[in-house]
Amino acid sequence: MNFTVTPWDVKGEVDYDNDPLLNSEKLKYYTNKDFLNIYRMLYSYNPQVNSLLIQYKINRESRDYILNRLYKKFGKNINLISNILLKNLEKYRNKNYASKYKEKNRIKNNLLNGNITLEYARVISLMLSRTTNDSIYIFNEIIKNSKYIIIRGNKTKIPFNSKKLNNKLSYLCGIICGDGHISKDFNEIVIADGTKNIRLLHYSKTFFENLNKLFIYNFDIKGTIKKVKNYYTLRLESQFISRLMNYFYEIPDGKKCEIIHVPKIIKNTGKETLYWRGIFDTDGHARIKNKAIGFTTKSYLLSNDFLEFSNKNKLNIFNKHYTDKNIIKILISEESILKFAKIIGFSHPRKQLILIDYLKSGSSYNIPIAKIKNKKLDQFISYLRPYKNQVYIRLTEKREMVSSELLKERIKSIESILNVNVVQIKRNRKNNHFYICSKKLAEKIKEYYDFVPSWRSLDEKNVNKLRETWSFI
Q1: Residue 298: CB atoms within 10 Å
Q2: Alpha helices, DSSP H only, in 362-402?
Q3: Are 298 and 327 in contact (CB under 8 A)?
Q4: How far apart are CA 473 and CA 471, in angstroms?
Q5: Any residues with CB less than 8 A from the CB of 58 and at least 6 apart, and which?
Q6: CA torsion sign, 346 to 347 to 349 to 353?
Q7: Rounded CA gap, 311 and 303, in Å?
Q8: Would you give the distance in Å from CA 200 to the centre of its chain?
Q9: What confidence score (pLDDT) does residue 165 get?
Q10: pLDDT tens-place string over residues 118-154
Q11: Fold of 162-356
Q12: Which one of 97, 265, 277, 463 is most buried, counting C-beta atoms within 10 A?
């Protein structure tokens, strides 16, 4: 699409209906490889009124850049420039003003005072260009020179550079999806974090203080931290950031627990690991007494996304759907805790310390290494452990969640294929013990297999190296 705008010839082929910044599928998220399309983001919520493009203004410091570009093309005649801008605004809006003189003077004052809306900036970029591609480049330059976007006097740093931004916001997206929400009016983001152990509650405050550093670094604003009983809240009042997280990262407003998922802009990229860290930092748990890491969700989409992510990264996980509560519980196998630490990890200070204790103590989970192949034993060796003159049966993988029916099937299979009797020892606990009283089988297992820890403990130096990778600031 070519067009020419000169002081004597106003064609203005581009309007709201055919502006590629608003309609091109290719430009839905990015105006080029570096710039996020915040213009479409703010337009998409009420395209009939376009109120946000008129409400949001660029920084006054960009006024000189815009005026110099206009003077260079049209000459230093602000009345002429205002008249041309008015004609192009009428075409862009598909609207004719009854009092053109009054509107032209208003435009003139806005230009001179640096009171320039995003809509003005877009139309000016069209006036300064000969092709739509040129206009997009100039619009990006205007936004880049502005640095900040303003609404009702509140300034927010513009996140135009997607390369610097996505890692930080991928993590923040996981945080909001985990234990936060965007208000229905898109005016604020609220995140909650706490613990029943009041002595450890201060870590939640530290966590939110770190999150505020992230907001300051990326947007030059911060949220309000407040203590409520045994938890803290972080409340960030920002319509711009709320809409950004909704548009680019697909976080719905209001209730979201059953429909959250990994957004397209993150999925199957290197940034997805940061998203999962945000999920584990909020909705996840790390138990102090035993090595157990996991999270719960009501979203089948999120559960399937993590299953796909785990398979791709060879993380062993267990998941179980509790129909009575309509939740899905996901646990990381102890065998994969070191891999979890390397791939995802925790940035939350309380959970991070627990994970560090895990890493320093090493795995309590031994895996069988075959010295001699045996087809029958290979089927069940993950459940069998020789102990003195008998074989202890561990009917589940560590942290595996299975039904009682499946456990009975496993016992029958072991008895049938190995031709042994399984003895059950009842305990005053949730699970009973199962043994095979066979010295011969115990010795055979020892002959055919070695049992070694699934991963070794880490020293302080290697723990600190991992800890550095968990920092998100």
Answers
A1: 15
A2: 375-380
A3: yes
A4: 6
A5: 116, 117, 118, 121, 142, 143, 146, 148, 149, 150
A6: positive
A7: 12
A8: 26
A9: 61
A10: 999 999 999 999 888 999 999 999 998 999 999 888 8
A11: Endonuclease I-creI (3.10.28)
A12: 277
> Which burial class, exposed, middle or buried, applies to 216 when counting CB atoms under 10 A from its CB (0-12, 13-18, 19+)?
middle
C-alpha closest to that of 346 among 205, 455, 463: 463
The amino acid at 131: T
pLDDT, residue 397, reads 57
Alpha-carbon distances of 402 from 255, 310, 316, rounded to whole Å: 31, 19, 15
* Packing angle, helices 202-219 and 162-179, rounded to 10: 150
Region 337-360 average pLDDT:
97
* 8 touches 74 (CB < 8 A): no
What is the token pair recorded at 178?
Answer: 């985990």
365: which 2 tokens? Answer: 């989970």
Is 62 within 8 Å of 118 (Cβ atoms)? no
Single out the residue of 175, 330, 177, 344 nearest to residue 273, CA to CA: 344
CA-closest candidate to residue 116, choices 87, 80, 145: 145
Strand partners, 331: 294, 318
pLDDT-based confidence at 321, cuts 50/70/90? confident
Segment (H or E) for 402: none
Cα angle 159, 162, 166 (rounded to 5 degrees) comes to 95
Q: Which residue has the tokens 């102990």?
A: 387
Report the C-alpha gap between 337 and 364 in whole angstroms: 11
Q: How many Å apart are CA 59 and CA 456, to the nearest integer?
A: 55
Q: CA torsion sign, 226 to 228 to 232 to 237? A: negative
CA distance 15 to 25: 17
Q: Please name the residues in contact with 470: beta carbons below 8 A apart, sequence gap of 6 or more.
A: 277, 345, 346, 347, 352
Task: Give the containing element (helix H, strand E) for 353.
Answer: helix 349-361
Nearest alpha carbon to residue 345 among 335, 357, 355, 336: 355
Q: Domain-by-domain residue ranges, the chain?
A: 5-157, 162-356, 366-453
Total H helices, total E strands in the chain = 19, 19
Distance of CA 225 to the CA centre of its chain: 21
Residue 271 near residue 343 (C-beta atoms within 8 A): no
Burial class (CB in 10 A: 0-12, 13-18, 19+), 397: middle
Q: How far from the centroid of its chain's Cα atoms is residue 261's Cα?
A: 9
* Residues pairing with 320 in the sheet: 329
> Residue 373 contacts by C-beta under 8 Å, 6 or more apart in sequence?
none
